[in-house]
Amino acid sequence: MTSKVDGTAVSEALGYEQARDELIEVVRRLEAGGTTLEESLALWERGEELAKVCRRWLDGARARLDAALAEEETAGAGAGDAE
To answer: Could you tell me the pTM of the whole model?
Structure first.
C-alpha cells in the first residue's frame, strides 16, 4: 500500500463516511482541549486534510447529480419533440 509521510495518499483512499467520522473525532478532540500545541497543530492539519477529502467526495456527488438531471432534462425534451 502506498503511503506518503503527510498521509495524503492514505486520506485519498478514505470513503466519505470514514473521512467525515474521523473529522468529527478530530474536531471533538480539539474542542475538548488538553492537548499540547504540537498535538493541536497536528490535529488541525489532519482536520484540514480530511475536510478536503470530504469536499472532493461531495463535489463528485454533485457533479454526478447534475449530469443525471441534465440527462433527464435532455431525454424529456426529446420525448416532447416526438409527439
So the answer is: 0.73
